[in-house]
Amino acid sequence: MRISPRLTLNNGVMVDRLGFGLYKVPPADAAGLVTAALEAGYRHFDTAAMYGNETGVGKAVGALSAFDGSAGGSGELHRALAREDLFVTTKLWNDDQGYDATLRAFDASISRLGLAYVDLYLIHWPCAKRGLFTESYRALETLYREGRVRAIGVSNFQPAHLERLLQSAEVVPAVNQIELHPWLQQAELRALHASLGITTEAWSPLGRGQVLQDPVVLELSAAHRRSAAQIILRWHLEVGNVVIPKASSSGRIRENHDIFGFSLGTAGLDALAGLERGFRTGSNPDNVN
Ligand code: NDP
């Protein structure tokens, strides 16, 4: 089994470039899908308090840290892995912003996950109108100093939000997780991240499945004899993103992980670069409050 290449965050913590996303995974399915993903080679999992499936993720991943093989099914797999082989991200929900509320929300998340620490804790949306993200981030810094999170960051932050945050932040965010796929390539944010040492993590990397139908993607799929999903995920790796596709079957989970044995070449990258159209599948961060 091939394991994803890793990238080093700005604080030295390493993360798999390819992870597994759990938005819209029903709570009852989470443990089974995380176990299928572990078996396929994923070691990086992206959940959130809002997804309602932290407990299910914890069933597969949290129990794994006890090495008892009783969690998600495969005893052998569980015995072969240590907690430090995994990277678990969760996120602070909007209603829990504010210093004290963030600390309480983190306690609740970690208890649902059954973990002693998470690898990455993110502010899910800036919710700028609430005016609380700098306070919330101060709580993330507290958790970071206490060693309860290995890295902290943000999600859905636009340049103005990052600029505001950095006026008071003592720890530069390790990650900004943003909507990013060939139809929304986020050139401005990616350049800003590069200049600040922030890693770009792509959510809805397949455009929630919609970009799979793009004719250019389909042409590349035929030329490389790879699925449309593999073409897009490979593009993410080659342009430098961390990427966290979601899928609901073990076949797709495996397919999405099998992207390390080919490359798109300059022509493929150029063709995909031409697909930018400013198309969002999710909310504009300026409208979420
Ligand atoms: P994705 O771009 O990952 O697309 C998921 C969709 O693509 C699903 O409908 C899935 O179908 C389909 N799909 C996956 N693999 C294949 C394949 N090989 N062939 C055909 N179809 C496929 O969308 P998400 O919105 O789920 O984003 C990924 C992750 O990003 C989330 O799960 C979450 O962790 C994170 N995220 C973060 C947000 C944030 O605000 N920070 C917002 C949104 C997402 P099926 O499930 O039926 O297999």
Furnish the topology, listing elements before pairings.
Elements: E1 6-8, E2 14-16, E3 20-21, H1 27-40, E4 44-46, H2 54-61, H3 75-80, E5 87-92, H4 99-113, E6 118-123, H5 133-145, E7 149-155, H6 159-168, E8 175-179, H7 187-196, E9 199-203, H8 215-224, H9 228-239, E10 242-243, H10 250-257, H11 265-273
Helix pairs in contact: 1-2, 1-10, 2-4, 4-5, 8-9
The chain binds NADPH dihydro-nicotinamide-adenine-dinucleotide phosphate.
CATH H level: which superfamily?
Answer: NADP-dependent oxidoreductase domain
**What portion of residues is helical?**
25-40%
Distance between the termini: 42 Å
Strand content: 5-15%
Question: What ranges have pLDDT less than 50 throughout 5 or more consecutive residues?
Answer: 66-73
Describe the structure.
- The protein is an alpha/beta fold and 289 residues long.
- It has a single domain (6-206, 242-247), classed as TIM Barrel.
- The chain has helices at residues 27-40, 54-61, 75-80, 99-113, 133-145, 159-168, 187-196, 215-224, 228-239, 250-257, 265-273, and strands at 6-8, 14-16, 20-21, 44-46, 87-92, 118-123, 149-155, 175-179, 199-203, 242-243.
- It has an 8-stranded parallel sheet with strand order 3-4-5-6-7-8-9-10.
- A hairpin with a 5-residue loop joins strand 1 (6-8) and strand 2 (14-16).
- The chain binds NADPH dihydro-nicotinamide-adenine-dinucleotide phosphate.
- NADPH dihydro-nicotinamide-adenine-dinucleotide phosphate binds next to helix 10.
